[in-house]
Amino acid sequence: MSGLITRRGLLAGISALGAGAALSACGAKTGGDTSKAAGAKADTSGATVKVGLLNSLSGTMAISEVTVHNALLLAVKEINAAGGVLGKQLKPVSQDGASDWPTFAEKAQALITDSKVVATFGCWTSASRKAVKPVFERNKSLLFYPVQYEGLEQSPYIFYSGATTNQQIVPALDYLKKQGLTKLYLVGSDYVFPRTANKIIKTYAKANGMEVLGEDYAPLGSTEFATIVNKVRSAGADAVFNTLNGDSNVAFFKEYKSAGLTAKKLPVLSVSIAEEEVKSIGTQYLEGQLTAWNYYQTTPGAANETFVAAYQAAYGKDKPTSDPMEAAYISVHLWKAMVEKAGSFDVEKVKAASDGIEFDAPEGKVTVDGATQHVHKTARIGKVTASGLIEEVWNSGGPIKPDPYLKGYDWAADL
Questions:
Q1: Quick one: which of 74, 294, 346, 353 has the fewest CB in 10 Å?
Q2: Which neighbouring-strand residues pair with 50?
Q3: pLDDT given at position 41
Q4: Average pLDDT over residues 286-310
Q5: Mean pLDDT for the chain?
Q6: Mean pLDDT of 32-53
Q7: Which residues of 37-68 are buried (b: 16+ CB within 10 A; e: fewer)?
Q8: What is the average per-residue pLDDT within 58-66?
Q9: Mean pLDDT to the nearest integer, 123-134
């Protein structure tokens, strides 16, 4: 697939992926009777209610998603210890998306139809989210999606607790520009998020005096990066903008160092590498490299100290926290606040109650924007240290209002 694709073709492909994956999974594997599925209702009749946890617990994305699953479990445990939601205890039901997008759609349907969950929390890749999106919309069931993504989307049945483009990618580009790093090479995994993100990056670059010198994609899960790294090394770029996901980052950064490239010679700014991935890849390959997120384990504040202590008490003193984990963790607490404001588990009432919901999160105060079902978030640029933690080197000074379609940016008008 060419890196130069039209928006119409891209969105058509995304739509086909989501609808095709959902229909093939739900039709072929659940008997194809979507009318019964569409009538499924959450069960709130007992002393407990079920919440769905939908993550890749196996496959190439497990390196990232297992810890998100753990953070969701921690939030559920805390809420139950504090009395539950509307007097009911939460019972988590976990499903493994197995890093396979049709499987995500199948498991989403199972959570809604068979487990009768009141809400679902999960997904990581945009491919998995696009695959399950029609499932949640058809069933009018809520998904809370915790990971930064490429924007250009709103769904009436998805809340996005991770960053949209103007809360991560745009601030990252602003930072690189201010550092004088204006010649970029783009490296990403070959699926929805990197291709759409890079389309936005190229549009930004054209309007802001930056230049994209190359653009390469590798299949998700790829471990062969010699050719791409050689192209990066010879391009004359000032920085690499990295949208690789999952364990492909391990192979990329090992090849990067083997080729003699370092953070000092040619910095890489990554938007999908957090503390857990740093540990898995190895600090010797990442020290000094840049990341763009909204939260780091080192983010100051009492709420974060409490969160880190609780997570490490549950999963081990050597276990780091990360942005996707934190965004997943807060998504459960935000849902709880919505339900309690609504006084009901009813999906439409919960949605109506969402606007203005606030939470003192580990990343700082977050606020739900009911119009977009995204969250106000502070942008942060960090640098990987020898300890494996990420130290903040810049932040936006406060929460940024979500703008998933970049309507507030003149240069993005054609997107």
A1: 346
A2: 91
A3: 87
A4: 98
A5: 91
A6: 75
A7: beebebeeeeeebbbbbbbbbebbbbbbbebb
A8: 94
A9: 97
Contact 150, 206 (CB under 8 A): no
Say how far apart CA 185 and CA 212 lie, in whole Å: 6
DSSP state at residue 397: S
Q: Is the pLDDT of residue 176 over 90?
A: yes
Residues in the chain: 415
- State the DSSP H helix or E strand holding residue 203, giving kind and residue range, or none if neither: helix 192-207
Torsion over CA of 320, 323, 328 and 333, rounded to 10 degrees?
Answer: 100
User: Structure pTM?
Assistant: 0.88
Helix axes 62-81, 302-315, angle to 10 degrees: 110
Q: HEC string of 14-69?
A: HHHHHHHHHHHHHHHHCCCCHHHHHCCCCCCCCCEEEEEEEECCCCCCHHHHHHHH
Distance between CA atoms of 169 and 284, rounded to whole angstroms? 25
Closest Cα partner for 116 from 138, 96, 93, 100?
A: 93
Contacts of 309 (CB under 8 A, 6+ apart): none
**Token pair belonging to 206:** 């054209």
CA distance 100 to 398: 36
What are 234's two structure tokens?
């010879």
Cα–Cα distances (Å) from 402 to 128, 182, 194, 249, 379, in that order, read 22, 25, 20, 28, 11
pLDDT band at 40 (very low <50, low <70, confident <90, very high): low
**Could you tell me which of 329, 6, 414, 350 has the C-alpha nearest to residue 157?**
350
| 306, 274 contact by CB (below 8 A) | no
**pLDDT tens, position by position, 11-21:** 333 333 333 33
Count CB atoms within 10 A of the CB of residue 192: 26
Give the pLDDT mean for 319-342: 98
CA dist., res. 151 & res. 92, Å (int): 28
The per-residue pLDDT for 84 is: 98
> How is residue 413 written in tokens?
């008008």
- pLDDT for residue 362 is more than 50: yes
Give the number of other CB atoms < 10 A from CB of residue 236. 12
Would you say residue 398 has pLDDT above 90? yes
Classify residue 140 by its DSSP letter.
Answer: T
